[in-house]
């Protein structure tokens, strides 16, 4: 509950947005609209329900089986 409140008050700051989720190539495509940089994050073998930006250079992947994973990109 507190975590949700903090996310609402202080949202994650990132210049990247989720451009598309490609189930055929099994990747989430992210793009920095300001600089035109694109990055791809591998989804993995599970079926993806949702992807959200979780912070600078970090994306949260939520799967249909109820599990979640945070993955860093642009290392």
Question: What does this molecule look like?
Answer:
A 3-stranded antiparallel β-sheet has the order 1-2-3, with no helix packed on it. Strands 4-5-6 form a 3-stranded antiparallel β-sheet, with no helix packed on it. The model has no long low-confidence stretch (mean pLDDT 87). It is built from 1 helix and 6 strands, in the order αββββββ. The chain is mostly beta strands and 75 residues long.
Number of helices: 1
**What does the main sheet amount to?**
3 strands, antiparallel
Order of helices and strands: HEEEEEE
Residues in β-strands, percent = over 45%
CA gyration radius, whole angstroms? 13 Å
What is the general shape? flat
Write out the strand line-up for the largest beta sheet, numbering strands in chain order. Answer: 1-2-3
Q: Give the CA-CA distance, first to last residue.
A: 31 Å
Mean pLDDT: 87
Q: Give the uncertain stretches in residue-range form.
A: none
Tell how many strands the DSSP assignment holds. Answer: 6
Q: What structural category characterises the helix and strand content?
A: mainly beta
| Helicity, as a percent range | 10-25%
Secondary structure layout plus pairing:
Elements: H1 2-9, E1 16-22, E2 27-32, E3 37-42, E4 48-55, E5 58-63, E6 68-72
Antiparallel strand pairs: 1-2, 2-3, 4-5, 5-6
Which features would summarize this protein structure in a list?
single chain; 75 residues; mainly beta; 3-stranded antiparallel β-sheet; 1 helix
């Amino acid at each position: 509950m507190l975590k949700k409140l903090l996310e609402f008050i202080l949202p994650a700051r990132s210049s990247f947005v989720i451009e598309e989720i490609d189930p055929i190539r099994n990747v989430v495509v992210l793009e920095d609209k300001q600089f035109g940089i694109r990055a791809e994050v591998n989804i993995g073998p599970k079926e993806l329900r949702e992807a959200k930006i979780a912070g600078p250079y970090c994306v949260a992947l939520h799967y249909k089986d109820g599990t979640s994973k945070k993955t860093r990109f642009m290392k």
